[in-house]
Design goal:
It contains 28 helices and 21 strands. It is of the alpha/beta class. The structure holds pyridoxal-5'-phosphate (PLP).
Amino acid sequence: MFVLDRPSEMPTTLLSGVTLPKRINRLVELVYNLWWTWNSDTIELFEAIDRQLWEECVHNPVKFLRRVKRKELNGALQDPAFLQLYDKVIGEFDAYMRDDQTWFNRTYPGRRDHLIAYFSTEFGLHETFPTYSGGLGILSGDHAKEASDLGLPFIGVGLYYNQGYFSQHITEDGWQEAGYVRYSFDDLPILPLLNEDGQPIMVSVELPGRRLWTRLWRIQVGRVPLVLLDSDVPQNAPEDRDLTARLYGGDKDTRICQEIVLGIGGVRALRALGLHPKVWHMNEGHSAFLTFERIRELVAEGKDFQTAMAEVKASTIFTTHTPVPAGNEEFPDWMMDRYFHQYWPEMGLTREGLMDLARLQHAGGQTFGMSVLGIRMSRASNAVSELHGQVSRRMWQFLFPGTPIERVPIGSITNGVHTGTWLARSMRLLYDRYLGPDWMEHLDDPETWQALLAVPDAEIRATRLHLKRKLISYIRERARAQWVALGRHPVQIVAAGTLLDPYKLTIGFARRFSTYKRGSLVMRDVDRLLRIVNNPHMPVQIIFAGKAHPMDEPGKRIIQEVYRQLKRAEFAGRIAFLEDYDINLARYLVQGVDVWMNNPRRPLEASGTSGMKAALNGVINFSVLDGWWQEGYNGDNGWAIGDESELADYNAQDAKDAASLYDVLENQIVPLYYEDRQNIISAGWIRKIKESIITLAPQFSTRRMVKQYVEEMYLAEPAPAAVSGNGRR
Ligand SMILES: *Cc1c(COP(=O)(O)O)cnc(C)c1O
């Protein structure tokens, strides 16, 4: 009943019933397919109708079409240039959706039935969708978009959070406050999945003392569908209706319920759609209960537990995303009892048998570890950078007694970013001119990028300056809107970046504020930082952004420490903190600053992806040699903070890394940027930009990454030993 490759199911009127003039009514199809988010021509189309409204609707095309005035639409209809662009976009859309010569089809003819189901708690697709919090979500979203570009038989499974993560407000004293809003479906490009009778398709899971119902939503990402489960239905009690309301909200009980809905409910959702994936990809341990449900299905068919487990394992793969303990979910035994005592008999297991699947021993007792379950239940597991692979093999060696660290079966596939999503339009036009018209088809081939050497410096300089001006005028408009609407204290308006100058060296630092990311490291020696920032001939600006999890008190204190410093008059408004980091702000920042700084405590950054987005746009990385940068840095394409050493004494490590940070900034970065008297950005700097793009753009793209997943994980035949827990190196 659910056909993956049938975009014709898409609606022709907005769900709210709004109809458009016939000549341009296929705009409706465009807005219900997120293909438009990585096709800058479509964005031009919306801007051409009403640029002001497009910004007011925060780039939400459904909202936009619901609110746009007939007058503006009629104006567009009278404009031949608009109609020409419209026809071009529709032509490109149709060509994309109908293409059967995709990379997957060409490389693996006859494998279209090899459906891959990709489970993730977060999908970061666009700023309008409240279904992500940070890096993990962006990666899932980029993975889905690339799976579409490459033509994989692929379906994503996740949860629909009608309040999303949270919106961030910083008080005058630097304290983070969290706000929540409820999103309206009418305003989102999301569709209910209906059965033949036009009724919502519902699936349920058993929770203690009740049955929890969910309905299913579909988001179309190019050729790839995502199915999201949502507990906000009248069949559920009020508390249960809010079960999937917030991403990473609530207590441990909420978390385990959400993970039961994602894992067990997710399998049932695919079954309700008549789907039988050949590969089940658990992106992080949150979805690992999916293996329970698939074992239960096989046991119900009459198989014993061991046979069922071997079968499940042979078609399951697992990606681990963090060595930080809080990122590896664990549940206490009493909770497993509470939620699974009726379930383990259905898996053909005793209580002990179930607990032993994912046993973690601690000083204080034992728990059930979701990453352990993920690793044990998969035929192959991978980390997300080479260094993270080493760290993970050490971390999980205890699961493979007698296996030397280097033979622990956890491989690595380094993360990447989706080029079309993160590349600025003006940079893309520049690449179009110099890399050849079909460079996007070969973007993971290093050869493609060599042609950048021939680009005149002046063009790169002009594009970089354009993007920085765009960023800073965006920042000022935001500050102005807050000043007008929210009655903030003037110092907050300065702290929001009003005094930034688009012609000065600008550093970006934006990421989650959790302690290992050391968001206040650059403030460690404030006097030294003041001298660097206020150098009269060569000033430096720093722009911060990022959220701390609402329960993460130490993370919130780091934001406060940074904020209290930067609002001091001595910093002259050259350091700013931008509230409410999201995909929209991330795009402005990774496209607009000069330097992208990252200083995590090595080796805790599994990969990091924002630096890859920056590199793609000609922003130069300045980072600790952790995660992807350990692989990406070649001595010439950016700068390193510190070296490859890790000290057990955190304070000593911080002091050492901060000293290195100041030295490199003061002695290398600042002088290089301002080296030419006649140019705002020196020729030496532009050489570095070229070196950075040429070496990093092809390697750290999802194009390379998803191909690697296909070759090494999705289509690799399970080795005979796989059944006993073999990963791939
Ligand atoms: C890319 C991105 C991230 C992840 O960045 P890291 O480098 O992994 O910290 C987080 N949030 C947003 C909004 C992003 O765009």
